[in-house]
Write a structure and sequence with these properties.
The complex is a heterotrimer of chains A (290), B (539) and C (374).
Chain A (H helix, E strand, L loop, with lengths): L17 H19 L5 H29 L5 H40 L7 H7 L26 H24 L3 H33 L6 H33 L9 H26 L1
Chain B lengths: L16 H6 L4 H30 L9 H36 L7 H23 L20 H4 L3 H29 L12 H32 L13 H35 L6 H15 L14 H13 L1 H15 L8 H24 L1 H7 L3 H31 L5 H28 L13 H30 L34 H4 L8
Helix pairs in contact in B: 2-3, 2-4, 2-16, 3-4, 3-6, 3-8, 3-14, 4-6, 6-7, 7-8, 7-9, 8-9, 8-11, 8-12, 8-14, 9-11, 11-12, 12-14, 12-15, 14-15, 15-16
Chain C lengths: L1 H16 L5 H6 L9 H34 L16 H33 L8 E8 L2 E6 L4 E5 L4 H4 L11 E4 L3 E8 L4 E5 L4 E5 L5 E6 L4 E6 L12 E7 L1 H23 L6 H20 L17 H4 L2 H10 L14 H13 L11 H7 L1
The chains are: A mainly alpha (290), B mainly alpha (539), C alpha+beta (374).
The complex binds heme-A (2 copies), dinuclear copper ion and copper (II) ion.
């Protein structure tokens, strides 16, 4: 990892309006969100305006990058910078999820035994809960949200696991196609990955609906509901983002933007997709199964 | 706007007007923006500190409603840490890293601008969170302190949501900046410069950036849970639903403790240049410096719960966290030792950066040692949440972080502006500043030991004397910063011309560029001869 | 000016006395107060030990730095020793220094560990006396679990406490000396922390969880402390006053409290219809102590955090809704459930609120109404 190959000039883009547009859009969105969740009416409109601006920003920024790339502004070193940037971005995402997995771990292995009067702090249970025995999955001694049924692992979640794993394979397959310079192979690989991703999201949405209407398993269902929805929800959000990114890549593939040796964007999205895959495996094991 | 055409430019046309700053992709300009932003925030955070000290000047509630007081405490801490120290350090990084490693710019110049411009947005949200309660229907003030512990933070009105989003923005900014720095350091070093030949400031920032990428997302996760508990009925921090308020503390401090090293390390990096320069002698122990930094970062990630000794952990857990925390004195001690050994048998002169460096060594050691006292669990049963802790962390934060940045600013100001600063005034600033600092915070140790809790707006008469001294010190200390402002402005506007190599004993690539360097520097890689001009070669 | 001078004087004394003889600083309020329990003594000792070690290290660092600053300066013509890092010392210091530091570290940790175990582990004692300590916004509730006595402890306004303002309470926590006492800390709303420096037990009170500490008080006296965890607006107004008395005196005090409690209960359950004057008088007193911190004695509250009751829709509207919020509280806000009060007390408070400060509803709420409403 060093920079022996600094042969040509490193590409420094010209002044660009996108970062400030990004700032404005983020600020608008978040101010709007803060107002909206506190019941101030204009909030939601502000959010929508912010998000539209954000979409415009992404579109504009990435078109610039694509144009620069197509006009051969980037050398090998720039490409490496992009790659490393993406890797570290994913690393930060990993730690974001780690916070939620950590919370789950903490609740199950430290907080609940404490509530149950385990070990050195037995008095909690004696004094406050008088015989309550927490068993995971639980909605706590206060039985928040009322009775609920647990989401089983071997129905839709197992199918979803299968779907995501398959999609990991299809995107790798697409990558081969790209490397072998076979346009069809690439396009079909991408299309099937997107298809699987979309099916995943649809199944997930169906599962949520089922949980809300039939199982009485909601965000309000104590700590089980909280961790369940936060973990799966953020994951689902990432899958959605990943699928959108894949669609952009598909569009660019159809336009023939990628060459067997120059396709950073494709790889970045593929890495992201694998990351989302791996997180799902963690979810399946720790949220649904164990 | 985008010039993607093959017009490969090194024709050095400097953009002009507001576009130059707002649309910038130039590391020097962005560095300047960071530094100016940090300076503004220093004054904003300092102004809240002055109000805090004014309220504590005498017992009784004179100026501030208790909630307003604690809102100021919250803002003071967040503004100082996220608004002043981190951006200032990032500003130094932006300016100096490409110059030091012979790179034409940061690796991802546009993203660099984004990480800066998110900061004003975050500051706006933060200020909004302070302002909102003054409007009808705005809810109550953020009276939680910067730690935002639930359930208290669940009681606060909508200003809390503004703050939570501000923290998200700050997090995004830091993560993007860190990615950029890591990539720059890995990918943009001049040909022939290995990692172990990198200037020490680059190393400190590399480690800092790692830390940030690993811990900031956890904070973001924590405050997100807070947001959901507040508005969407989850029960992460509510025992009735099986959650636990302490969970938030773990998430916060998993971020919070490494964060203090994030604040410390860039300043350590500055010292690693200032001290050799003014001792005219290579940095002692380059390798052990790198090693200790990695050790600090690693151990620092696993000792967070020393902020929560009083929450009822098991004996085993507190013992582990105690020993882990105490052990950090080894790598930090080694760094301090290396600095002293660099001065030892050097040929020292005492320009302002060096004065600050010496003050840091002495006073940071003091703060670090009180940290080790805090790490001792049974004793922390007494110290915890008392003014003793406040004294500890200002002794590590001011010398360890802020003074290091001051040293860096004075050290590199001639390089940036091409003008020498006014040495006489700067020395005055140093002395008033350091003396004021000690008058402010030294007495707080005694307040804490005698039993004064922190974050209280009103106190018993028995604590009066030391608080009076502390507040008077704070006024001296605070006013001294006006002198800093004056010196900086004066230097920007003019002064004696500075040579390329500003300091007699300075080494490193940055001193081979003009002062100020051209808008685009190192667009061709440095020559081998320039590369060898370094103190940081491994021994 | 007087303050400044005496402040500086203390400071000088401190420099001299801090690390030297034991008695000097105690008088000056610059160190822990004199310990009044076994663990506090041990903690005091370990504190002094780490402080002395730190001072020693600090002196060493200062000495070396100042020596170097003085002798190795250019203005004295000192030439830098460019090979210093190449000496044997330069090559081995990376291992020598950490070893030395590790030695000091282990000494500290070792001593600390011994103390820690004693402080942390509650002794296995049949006679152990349990006191449940509940933090409320912004008062303490002490529940003597073994004696059936509860004490509510609130700060005393400046007019009545003078120089002890913020260090004085209306009802003290009375404890016997020479007994192993276990405190069980919990909270009704947000985090608080029980801290009495002389006893050296600081523990967070966490809502929904119980944490524990223990002490054995070794001398009689009055020990003052404060809530040490930020708990909102009046965090500064949560003093704790422990009165340590001989065992017999403690038991006598318990009996007295029990008798008073029985009398109050009898009064409340007596089938008596109360007059407006009686309820208003009682209500005013109760309201001012229990509700005044938030809703203010004047009833105007501290908006936006605490709503006014003067002219409030609830306090002037239907009685049921009013009783409801008082008895059940408002989850998620600082308004706690006051259902623990007896019928008479609630009746008196509600009557008072409905008729004071111009809330002239004329409603008279009797204990029986409260009973029925529950
Ligand atoms: C720059 C910031 C910074 C730095 C560097 C440190 C460094 C250290 N801190 Fe500090 N700390 C804070 C900022 C910082 N801290 C803040 C902001 C808080 C409060 C947060 C809040 O609650 O709001 C805090 C609180 C805090 C606590 C919690 C107190 C409480 O709330 O009860 C503890 C407890 O262990 C602690 C310990 C330490 C230790 C052991 C170090 C060590 O890293 C210090 C190591 C340095 C030395 C030891 C000196 C040099 C070494 C030698 C000369 C060698 C010889 C030494 C020995 C043999 C011991 N700190
Ligand atoms: C990098 C971080 C940083 C920095 C630089 C500072 C700087 C200062 N802090 Fe800071 N402080 C914290 C981080 C920091 N603090 C944190 C994390 C907390 C804990 C918060 C919590 O409990 O949640 C805290 C809490 C804290 C408290 C405790 C409040 C309480 O617990 O009740 C106090 C009280 O004295 C205090 C004082 C000061 C002072 C006087 C300065 C001075 O150094 C400031 C000097 C700078 C200026 C003054 C600015 C420049 C000058 C002007 C604005 C001109 C105008 C001047 C005048 C009118 C005189 N701080
Ligand atoms: Cu209760 Cu602070
Ligand atoms: Cu820490």
């Amino acid at each position: 990892m060093s920079a022996e190959q600094q042969t040509e000039h490193y590409y420094i883009p010209d002044p660009s309006p996108w970062p400030v547009v990004g700032m404005v859009s983020l600020l608008t969105t978040l101010v709007g969100a803060a107002l909206a969740i506190n019941g101030v009416d204009i909030g939601s409109y502000v959010v929508i305006a912010g998000l539209l601006l954000f979409g415009y920003l992404l579109f504009g920024w990435f078109s610039d990058v694509v144009k620069e790339n197509l006009s051969d502004c980037y050398n090998h070193q720039v490409d490496t910078s992009f790659r490393m940037g993406m890797i570290w971005f994913i690393a930060s995402e990993v730690f974001f999820f780690l916070a939620f997995f950590g919370a789950l771990y903490y609740i199950r292995n430290i907080a609940l035994p404490w509530l149950g009067g385990d070990g050195y702090l037995g008095t909690t249970n004696e004094l406050l809960y008088d015989g309550y025995t927490p068993v995971w999955p639980t909605h706590g001694p206060g039985e928040m949200g009322g009775d609920f049924i647990v989401m089983g692992a071997w129905g839709i979640p197992a199918i979803n696991t299968f779907i995501l794993l398959t999609s990991g394979a299809t995107i790798t397959w697409a990558h081969w196609g790209l490397k072998l310079n076979k346009q069809n192979h690439l396009v079909w690989g991408l299309a099937s990955t997107i298809g699987l991703g979309v099916i995943f999201v649809i199944l997930q949405a169906y599962e949520y609906g089922h949980a809300y209407s039939d199982l009485n398993l909601t965000l309000e269902t104590g700590i089980y509901g909280s961790t369940f929805y936060m973990l799966t929800g953020f994951h689902g959000f990432h899958v959605t983002m990943g699928a959108i990114m894949l669609m952009a890549i598909l569009g660019r593939s159809l336009k023939g933007h990628f060459s067997p040796h120059n396709h950073f964007a494709f790889e970045a999205v593929a890495w992201y997709w694998h990351f989302v895959d791996v997180v799902w495996l963690g979810l399946f094991i720790f949220v649904y199964w164990l | 706007m985008s010039t993607y055409a093959a017009e490969h430019h090194h024709d050095d046309h400097v953009p002009t007007g507001w576009r130059r700053w707002v649309f910038s992709t130039n590391h020097k300009d962005i560095g300047t923006l960071y530094l100016l932003f940090a300076l503004c925030m220093l004054f904003l955070g300092g102004a809240s500190a002055m109000l805090i000290r004014a309220e504590l000047f005498q017992p009784g509630i004179q100026l501030l409603h208790p909630d307003l007081y604690n809102n100021l405490v919250t803002n003071h801490a967040l503004i100082m840490i996220f608004g002043a120290v981190m951006p200032a350090a990032a500003g130094l990084a932006n300016w100096m890293i490409p110059l030091m490693i012979g790179a034409p710019d940061m690796a991802l110049p546009r993203m660099n601008n984004l990480s800066f411009w998110i900061l004003p947005a975050a500051a706006t949200m933060l200020i909004l969170s302070f302002v909102v309660p003054f409007f009808p229907g705005g809810g109550s003030q953020i009276n939680t302190g910067w730690t935002l512990y639930p359930p208290l933070s669940l009681q606060v009105g909508m200003s809390m949501d503004f703050l939570i989003f501000a923290i998200h923005l700050l997090g995004i900014s830091s993560v993007l900046a860190s990615i950029n720095i890591i990539v720059t350091l890995f990918n943009m070093r001049a040909p022939g410069m290995t990692l172990m030949q990198m200037p020490m400031f680059c190393w400190t920032w590399l480690v800092t950036a790692f830390l940030l990428i690993l811990v900031v997302p956890v904070l973001a996760g924590g405050v997100t849970m807070l947001l959901f508990d507040r508005h969407f009925g989850t029960s992460f921090f509510d025992a009735a639903g099986g959650g636990d308020p302490v969970l938030f503390q773990h998430l916060f401090w998993f971020f919070g403790h490494p964060e203090v090293y994030v604040l410390l390390l860039p300043s350590i990096g500055v010292l690693a240049h200032v001290i050799p320069t003014f001792s005219r002698k290579p940095l002692f122990g380059y390798k052990s410096m790198v090693g200790s930094m990695l050790a600090v970062a690693t151990i620092g990630m696993v000792v967070w719960a020393h902020h929560q000794y009083t929450i009822g952990m098991s004996l085993g857990a507190v013992t582990y966290f105690m020993i882990g925390t105490i052990i950090i004195s080894i790598p930090v001690g080694l760094m301090i030792f290396n600095f002293i050994a660099t001065m030892w048998r050097g040929s020292m002169t005492f320009e302002t950066p060096m004065l600050f460096a010496v003050a840091i060594i002495l006073m940071f050691t003091f703060g670090g040692l009180s940290g080790v006292m805090l790490a001792v669990v049974p004793a922390d049963m007494q110290y915890h949440d008392s003014m003793f802790v406040v004294a500890h962390f200002h002794y590590v934060l001011m010398p360890g972080a802020v003074f290091g940045l001051f040293a860096g600013v004075f050290y590199w100001l001639p390089k940036w502006t091409g003008h020498m600063y006014d040495e006489v005034l700067a020395k005055w600033f140093f002395w008033i500043n350091v003396i004021g600092f000690n008058i402010t915070f030294f007495p707080q140790h005694f307040l804490g030991l005698a039993g004064m809790p922190r974050r209280i707006v009103d106190y018993n008469v028995m604590f009066t004397e030391f608080n009076v001294v502390s507040s008077i010190g704070a006024i001296i200390f605070g006013l001294s910063h006006l002198l800093l402002l004056y010196i900086v402005i004066k230097t920007i506007r003019g002064g004696k011309k500075a040579d390329a190599k500003v300091w007699e004993g300075a080494h490193g690539l940055e001193w081979h560029l003009d002062s100020p360097p051209a808008f685009h520097s190192w667009s061709t890689a440095p020559k081998a001869i320039e590369l060898t001009d370094t103190y940081e070669k491994p021994q | 000016m007087r303050f400044l001078v005496s402040g500086l004087a203390r400071w000088v004394v401190l420099f001299v006395g801090f690390f030297g003889a034991g008695s000097v600083y105690a008088e000056y309020g610059v160190n822990f107060p004199e310990p009044a329990s076994g663990s506090a003594q041990e903690i005091y000792d370990i504190h002094m030990m780490t402080m002395r070690v730190s001072t020693l290290l600090l002196v060493i660092v200062f000495a070396i730095v100042f020596y170097s600053l003085y002798f190795h300066r250019k203005s004295r013509g000192y030439k830098a020793d460019q090979k210093f890092h190449d000496t044997w010392f330069g090559h081995w210091s990376w291992i020598i220094v950490p070893t030395l530091v590790l030695g000091v570290d282990l000494t500290i940790a070792n001593n600390a560990n011994a103390v820690l175990e004693k402080v942390w582990v509650v002794p296995d004692d049949k006679e152990l006396m349990d006191v449940k300590v509940t933090g409320h916004q912004w008062w303490w509730e002490f529940d003597y679990l073994d004696h059936g006595v509860k004490v509510e402890s609130r700060y005393v306004p400046k007019e009545d406490s003078g120089d002890l303002y913020l260090r004085e309470v209306d009802n003290r926590l009375v404890l016997p000396v020479g007994t192993n006492i276990r405190f069980l800390h919990t909270s009704a709303d947000v985090l608080h922390a029980f801290w009495v420096p002389e006893l050296a037990v600081k523990k967070d009170a966490i809502p929904g969880y119980v944490t524990e500490t223990w002490v054995e008080i070794t001398r009689e006296g009055v020990f003052r402390g404060q809530c040490a965890e930020l708990c909102g607006t009046w965090h500064a107004r949560m003093p704790i006053v422990v009165e340590a008395v001989p065992k017999e005196q403690f038991l006598a005090w318990i009996d007295e409290r029990n008798a008073a409690k029985a009398a109050a209960a009898a009064e409340a359950s007596a089938d008596k219809t109360w007059t407006m004057e009686e309820l208003m008088a009682k209500g005013e007193e109760l309201y001012n102590t229990k509700c005044g911190a938030c809703h203010q004695v004047t009833g105007i509250g501290l908006p936006p955090a605490f709503p006014p009751l003067k002219g409030s829709a609830i306090a002037t509207g239907p009685i049921d809704a009013h009783l409801d919020i008082v008895i059940k509280g408002q989850p998620g806000t600082a308004m706690m459930a006051w259902g623990g009060l007896n019928d008479l007390e609630i009746a008196a408070i509600v009557t008072y609120e409905r008729n004071a400060w111009g809330n002239n509803t004329g409603d008279l709420v009797q204990p029986a109404d409260v009973k029925q409403h529950r």
